[in-house]
UniProtKB/TrEMBL annotation:
This is NADH-quinone oxidoreductase. InterPro entries: 2Fe-2S_ferredoxin-like_sf, 2Fe-2S_ferredoxin-type, Mopterin_OxRdtase, Mopterin_OxRdtase_4Fe-4S_dom, NADH_UbQ_OxRdtase_75kDa_su_CS, NADH_UbQ_OxRdtase_ferredoxin, NADH_UbQ_OxRdtase_Gsu, NADH_UbQ_OxRdtase_Gsu_4Fe4S-bd. One of its GO terms (molecular function) is oxidoreductase activity. Residues 2-78 form the 2Fe-2S ferredoxin-type domain. Keywords: 2Fe-2S, 4Fe-4S, Iron, Iron-sulfur, Metal-binding, NAD, Oxidoreductase, Quinone, Translocase. It catalyses: a quinone + NADH + 5 H(+)(in) = a quinol + NAD(+) + 4 H(+)(out). Pfam families: Fer2_4 (PF13510), Fer4_NDSU1 (PF22151), Fer4_Nqo3 (PF22117), Molybdopterin (PF00384), NADH-G_4Fe-4S_3 (PF10588), NADH_dhqG_C (PF09326). SMART domains: NADH-G_4Fe-4S_3 (SM00929). Residues 215-271 form the 4Fe-4S Mo/W bis-MGD-type domain.
Amino acid sequence: MAKVTIDGIEVEVPNGASVLQACEAAGKEIPRFCYHERLSVAGNCRMCLVEVEKAPKPVASCAYPVADGMKVFTDSAMVRNARRNVMEFLLINHPLDCPICDQGGECDLQDQAVAFGRDGSRYREEKRAVKDKYLGPLVKTIMTRCIQCTRCVRFATEVAGVPELGATGRGENMQIGTYVEKALTTELSGNLIDICPVGALTSRPYAFVSRPWELRKTDSIDVLDAVGAAIRVDTRGPEVLRIIPRTNEDVNEEWMADRGRFSFDGLKRKRLDRPWIRREGKLQPATWPEALEHIAGKLKGMPGSRIGAVAGDLVDVESVYALKALMNALGSQNLECRQDGAKIDGSRRDHYLFNSGIAGIDEADALLIIGSNPRKEAPVLNARIRKRWNSGAMPVATIGEAGLDLTYTAEHLGEGTAVLDALLDGSHAFAKVLGEAKKPMIILGRGAVAREDGAAVLAAAWALANQIGALTPEWHGFNMLHLFGGQVGALDAGFLPGEGGQDLAGMLSGGVDALWLLGADGFEPAFISPGTFVIYQGHHGDRAASRADVILPGAAYTEKEGTYVNTEGRVQRGRLAVFPPGEAKEDWRIIRAAGVAMGVNLPFDTLEDVRAGMVAANPVFGLVDGRIAGGVQDVAGPAAGGTLSGTAFKANLTDYWLADPISRASETMAECSRIYNAAPVAQAAE
């Protein structure tokens, strides 16, 4: 540790830390444009100049290491004059776009020009102009505003792992771009907007829509993938205008996946805003009393064994708990939340969680990915894997599809389950790599267990984790990567077939006479037996709504207070940012009202009652913003339930951009799907 004096304040910082970090430790604000704590140091904006005792000139604090006994001055006359001159240089060619710039009001250049700049310029020459670059349908560029901090270049290369941005030219002719214009091929491109300190990179869907001071800001959780990234939902009136990430070091750091960020326009399209009843073969509008009475008339007197319910992938735990309570009151054990057919029994929580924790990736020293493409299934988590791989401390191998571009080098061991057998008997070379690691990690994709031999794959992956020493009292290296934010919460709530209950296949094939679909759009509705009475409760007129006999309009995740559990088992809360459209209501309230219509009084009247019941059923729901971490006390694995088939693993998420009902209603996501799914075809043709 080095002792450094900052403006008379003595602080102790690690050896190798920069002067800027020492200044921050002392509580001093240092302006910067190119420096970002999660990116490599560039040192090219010179805004962070400070005075160091005995140094002949100001030094760039972001790139200058501390030394024991160093004295630093952050607000001397030399420093103030140097920063004013640097700001004057930066503004020579910067256009006076503030009144029309989407960054206006939350712009680092604006803030620092006022705080650290001078009130005039000595330059009268004409400003240079730069041609705007095309970076795809999500990021808008106005490159004349660019101050060449190269944050975007370093993010694309180091974090996203897609080195497509760079600088061409020198001096005044230097420009940032892709050299050959094309859409950025990363699922994290929206983060370029956040890290750009000026208005050179802004959101294309948000362009000229609003100003930051007009927005109502609500903290929430992204449920469109299972990472559970912390987000802020910005609204004006009844409409969501923007979704941006919040910092959560244990989950998403400060990044966010593009689907969760840009699919918000799907929240106002294809919405269900009133109840519907199918009469004479056609869906017709109805009132709430009519819809609930129609359901009650169909279900009253029907044996509980002939009633089933399926929970969707984006559903909050409150709704799942309420529907389970209603089904149990009706005598039904036909419950299902595994729309993809995943062979997860739910008897032990660590059999289906990402047990190491997302932050635990930073500790792993060997990784095996089985039947998963984390770049598509969880882009933010994949960036964390890349960060760990980039440190050189973690070799990576995959079993599954060949030719995947994960943004990091991974040894492809094979496509099918035969490789699992070879690793288990120790005949494969990578078994030694895993066995010699101190904290090995296995990531099992949700798609790997959503197949006929899924139970055997799950048991084999657990057995391999135990064999390589990944299951110890100090380290839990077995991890399942789920796809959506509602999947783990439904498993924790026990929304699975009870004693004598039927699974999804049984219910679809005529095993029930009435089927309640709670946001369940993850399977083809044509598979539902023709004579089944279908109740669809959800927020979008997606796949299953077309098959419904009664439609009950629910609320999307931005329109209700809801509890979600991410892939690592972290219990999180989403907040109400806008009210549901039309006559749509919160899902647990709909279920309670349906129970009253059927003469079933469920044991809750308020949201607090529902949450108290959830905690009573499973205490883990009381651990809000936390997760149960630690090693393994019992290494007993899940029941095998068959043998490995030897077939190759296939991707479970076929189109990243259109993976859920909200995204499928989004015009922005539809455009992304057209552009990015056509790109591999065009490259193959060349």
